[in-house]
Recover the amino acids of this structure.
């Protein structure tokens, strides 16, 4: 409209024809310019805030991953991640996220899908089956509790395993388990994981005892190396203790993490197969050379296999060849 009047000079002549003073025109012009300036600065400020938040989200997610990397230096250790205020952190099978930003995560991190807290407890172990495969991370918070329920037949598991106090894991014999008492002890928590090393008789009774918590109920068969999440109707298997521990902390993500763990296993087996073949060609002792050849075929038997019975058979084969190699003075299998 202003351009149709010949620009600002034309607009000034229009005002004069209407009997309006130049001062009034200047005031109107200043007001319009002021509005434009305010709009500009408002848009600049909001865009700047969005960018700053994106950077903060990204930096938070990267900070978590950096902490995991630094944390993996020891074979077994625990630590805390502390924040000034409670954060909403999400963990998926292949990523860690904070608000609107997610970063890919190649590591095996067993954690709840969502964590809202100002402190995260971390525990790491090296997953072995039977050879070292990769560091495994377990994450939880002070507002979560894991209770392992056992009987006389599974007491050996409790005696052989010790868990960091930071992870909130407790054990109780089935004869001493009182659901009403446990409900009182766990009131105020955000989550509760009940790990049964015995057959679960009545899931509904257990669930109804904790109406506000809705605990995760995991049944573990120590002889068959299988797990069952009764809440999610999910069946799975575990390969070694370190993978079983992961089932305690990541019920929603366990099927995906199980598949991801297999991929780590296959990669490690492939590298060890190549190592065994190299040693086979370098060692002069015919007996040792033959054993390393057999070992390489045993490693090859892991690759691409997702049947847990077959994988446990391969694990036993590798253990046998490791014993034979050491007995012959050839060195270890891994």
């Amino acid at each position: 409209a202003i351009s149709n009047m010949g620009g600002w000079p034309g607009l000034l002549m229009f005002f004069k024809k209407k009997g309006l003073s130049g001062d009034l025109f200047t005031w109107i012009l200043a007001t319009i310019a002021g509005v434009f300036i305010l709009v500009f600065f408002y848009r600049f400020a909001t865009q700047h805030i969005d960018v700053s938040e994106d950077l903060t989200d990204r930096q938070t997610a990267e900070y978590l991953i950096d902490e995991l990397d630094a944390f993996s230096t020891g074979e077994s250790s625990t630590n805390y991640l502390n924040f000034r205020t409670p954060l909403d952190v999400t963990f998926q099978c292949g990523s860690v996220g904070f608000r609107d930003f997610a970063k890919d995560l190649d590591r095996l991190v067993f954690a709840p899908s969502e964590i809202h807290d100002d402190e995260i407890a971390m525990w790491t172990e090296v997953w072995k089956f039977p050879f070292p495969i990769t560091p495994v991370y377990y994450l939880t918070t002070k507002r979560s509790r894991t209770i392992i329920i056992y009987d006389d037949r599974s007491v050996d598991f409790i005696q052989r395993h010790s868990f960091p106090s930071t992870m909130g894991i407790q054990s109780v014999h089935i004869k001493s388990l009182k659901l009403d008492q446990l409900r009182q002890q766990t009131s105020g928590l955000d989550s509760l994981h009940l790990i049964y090393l015995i057959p679960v008789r009545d899931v509904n009774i257990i669930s109804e005892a904790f109406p506000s918590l809705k605990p995760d109920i995991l049944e573990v068969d120590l002889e068959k190396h299988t797990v069952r999440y009764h809440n999610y109707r999910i069946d799975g298997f575990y390969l070694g203790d370190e993978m079983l521990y992961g089932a305690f902390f990541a019920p929603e993500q366990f099927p995906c993490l199980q598949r991801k763990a297999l991929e780590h296993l296959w990669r490690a087996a492939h590298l060890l197969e190549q190592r065994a073949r190299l040693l086979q060609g370098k060692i002069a002792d015919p007996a040792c050379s033959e054993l390393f050849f057999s070992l390489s075929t045993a490693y090859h038997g892991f690759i691409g296999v997702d049947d847990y019975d077959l994988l446990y058979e391969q694990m036993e084969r590798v253990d046998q060849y490791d014993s034979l190699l050491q007995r012959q003075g050839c060195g270890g299998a891994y």
About this structure: The mean pLDDT is 84. DSSP finds nine helices and twelve strands in the chain. The longest helix spans residues 22-71.
